[in-house]
Every structure is written in C-alpha cells, then in structure tokens.
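Notes from the 1:1 (GR / supervisor)

We went over the backlog. Supervisor wanted to see one worked example end to end before approving the batch request, so GR pasted a single chain during the call. The sequence is below; no edits were made to it. Supervisor asked that the structure be written out right there so they could see what the output format looks like.
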Amino acid sequence: MKYPNIEAERARLGINKKTLASELGVSRKTLYNWVSSGNIPMAALKQLSDLFGCSVDYLLGHTPCPPAS
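Structure output shown during the call:
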C-alpha cells in the first residue's frame, strides 16, 4: 500500500471505501487505482486533507503524525 495514512484516516473516521470515493466524486475503482498507482490528483488530496483534518504531507507519508485533534 503506497499511502497507509489515507487508509488509517479512513478507518479512523469509520467510513468505507465506497463512501470515501463518493465523497471525492469518483468510483471506488478510481480511488483504488489512484492509491495503488501512487498518482492521486492534487485536488483529491486537498479534499482528503480537508475531510480527514490533516495535512497533505501527512497523507503522503512525508510527516510522521497527524495534528492533534
């Protein structure tokens, strides 16, 4: 898995992959392809960052911890 922090935040919020994809306005398969290929569009990363309440850097694994809630 290229982006374990995305999966961790999704699980923390208790939403399934289909719901997450719907929040982004894409299909579950599109979301899967983005994550598995490592090619997530910046607009989607910003949406994920807002949804999860963390930085894009954290989602991409560039920083070790999300901000404290």
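Supervisor's comment: The first helix runs from residue 4 to 13.
Batch request approved.
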